[in-house]
Amino acid sequence: MRSFVSPFAASAAFAIIVLSSSAASAETAAEPPVICAALTVAAPAKLIASCSALIDNPATPEADRLDAMVTRAAALHGNGQTDKALAEIDAVIARDPNRARAFRARGEILRTSGKKEAAFESLNQAIRLEPDNANGYESRGNVFNNAGKYDRAIQDYDEALRLKPDFAQAFSDRGAAWYFKGEYQKAIADYDEAIRLEPNRARSYTNRGAAYKKLGRIERALDDETAAIRIDPSQPEFFDNRGLSLAGNGDYKQAIVDYNEAIKIRPEAKFLTNRGDAYQAIKDYDRAIADYDAAVRLDSTFQRAYNNRGAAWRGKGDRARAMQDYAEAVRLNPSDKTAAENYQQIALEVERLGALTTQTNLPSFNCATAKRPVEKAICADPGLARLDRDINDVFLRAIASAEADSHRAALALTQQQRDFIEKRNASFGRHSYDLRQAMAERLEKLNTIARP
Q1: Distance between CA 81 and CA 78 in Å, rounded?
Q2: How many helices (H) and strands (E) does the chain have?
Q3: pLDDT at 148 over 70
């Protein structure tokens, strides 16, 4: 997606959310008791309880008990108990090694756990056992999709649809494969069919909206994302996606409203960063920086937050902090051309401003020959330059005073100063290192030593 913040910010990211054969939603008081059956839509805890009652009932036939165990395993996985879920599936297979549904369930659990190779093995076995079951091809297509093998995914979805022409989920997931291939019109056609077959599947709407957004049809994207929220307002990604569309349309204030909702449901680094981008677009740099700070606290490796926070610091005129953040963004992802260009631009700006800095704002070293990024940052910032000069001045006074009393004390003080500079040079650019604070603390310490 094209960046909506500015040329210096990394493009805001959105994703086709999750490829799955079913989606769970919260029950309401008006819903009937939960039935332990395949593809039952219910809260995992309630489904586990329903299936457990069936499994523990001595009157339950063996075949029904094994089916209930597979259903319970899927619910356990949905409840965050993946190891227990896989153990349950293994127990079913041990008792009936020809039960294809157990292999399909294990494949889905492994796929959503990121274990693609193991998922392939289970789903291949499921297809061998039941070659005419569309669900096996649909599930294996999802693994190919997750692995970036979109043509192979489409082949599996085609086979699933040949076996089951009204398979709405297969249309929706094939639409995702077309989307990832950049075939947005084909993706929309598949989402159209998925929505025709199942008009209440929220993810089909938000994913179709993503395809419309790629084609620049923002109003259609907004319609779809609004429909997804209306159907299922519990998913923060739906609000985030609509926020991105609103921001792409220049409506940053309304985008912030949607980001607020996403963050309220589930705080994530990407949601906070997107809201920070919207604040930055309206030049509310302090709020933007607060959101980027919160994002990196949640995920210290979320590279886009550093890059975009660097842009916000640059907007505030704090080139030193901008340079630190851009440096961290490049370190986290050296292949990010946007971050690399941002770093190069700010480094050149720092160097140019350093050369133009007046004599009264010069630090203790020669900016014309400065090579280290930290030195260039000091040269570019009058406040940092003054701190550096003051540190040097107070250090020289402290050395003179120490030498008068003890040569050894003077040598120790010199080593302390060298240690400070070496740590400053090595630490600059790390997100946890505040150059201004470190220099201020060093100056305070030297002043304490230099006082008579």
Answers
A1: 7
A2: 22, 0
A3: yes
pLDDT at 223 over 50: yes
Alpha helices in 198-268 (DSSP H): 202-214, 218-231, 236-248, 252-265
260 contacts 229 by C-beta, under 8 angstroms: no
DSSP state of 194: H
Question: Is the per-residue pLDDT at 258 higher than 90?
Answer: yes
What are the pLDDT digits (tens) for 3-50? 323 333 333 333 444 343 333 344 444 567 888 887 777 788 999 999
17: phi then psi, degrees, rounded to nearest 5:
-70, -85
pLDDT, average across residues 262-285 = 97
d(CA 313, CA 206): 33
**How far is residue 229's CA from residue 218's CA, in Å, rounded to a whole number?**
16
Contact between residue 99 and residue 64 where contact means Cβ atoms under 8 Å apart: no
Distance between CA atoms of residues 154 and 73, nearest Å:
28
Amino acid, res. 71: T
Contact 78, 24 (CB under 8 A): yes
Using left for φ > 0, alpha for ψ between -120 and 50, and beta otherwise, residue 35 falls in beta
